[in-house]
Design goal:
By secondary structure, this protein is an all-alpha fold. The chain is globular, with a radius of gyration of 20 Å. It has one domain.
Amino acid sequence: MYDQGSAVHSSPSEPAPAIAVGPSNPARVVSIYVALIVAVQAVALLAGPTPATLGDAALVVAILTHFVLSLPAVERGRRQGAPSHPAVRALPALALLPVLGILSVTMVSARLPQLAWYALVGIPVALGVALVVRTLELDRRDLGLGAVSDMRQLWIAATGIPLAVLGYLLARPQPLLAHHDWRTLITGVLILTVFSGFLEETLFRGLIQPRLVTAFGPPGIPLTAVLFAAMYLGTRSAPYVLFAGALGLLYGRLASRTHSIWGVAVSHSLLNVGAILILPLVWS
């Protein structure tokens, strides 16, 4: 599932192309961007959405500029049989997180049902994921979406039920639906499954985590969990942010061990549908 980077070898008469992002070490640059993404989410919590949105916009420009400037070196490396530096390949995936932060502010409207916000944010993010997958020349197996070959995915998926109860008790969200008819309920289940459960797992455990693990080794899993938790700072609930971090770490380890995100994606979908949609109706 994970890409493997290698060093570039050259003859004494021909210097090796420097596969790096600007003058800095690529892995160090990626580490800095990870820290800045988390910092901007903290700014949103402390200073409000406007400074955070400006910070996210600056991050998108900076990250993508670094990636584009690295492309000539990457192409030279490929022509000589060397893959691009794994840290460089993490950049376009990381750029999707500040995009997600911007959309979470700009696509929200009090005139629309809250359930529609997930689709309004999710559709552009899904297009961004597709573009990054195409840019990095990944396939379904690279994202952990290959064929399910063992029963472990069913057991992993089933964890979403108790996690939904725990998530609801921690967050106590207000009901998303004003009406309890089956058509509205099914629509809500589909929206949360596609644009919350599966999309988030494809982004974090399918796209970002493998790139960070390839660049940094095992620490890439907790790094991804930290980024995942940071996206939940907007809940303004310390217990739920900690829950999201623990969840990201659990899902990350399960996806890494099984080389598949099917189980964690279904678990995440069950968690969100239960905690956000079903349980607030039952227990409100």
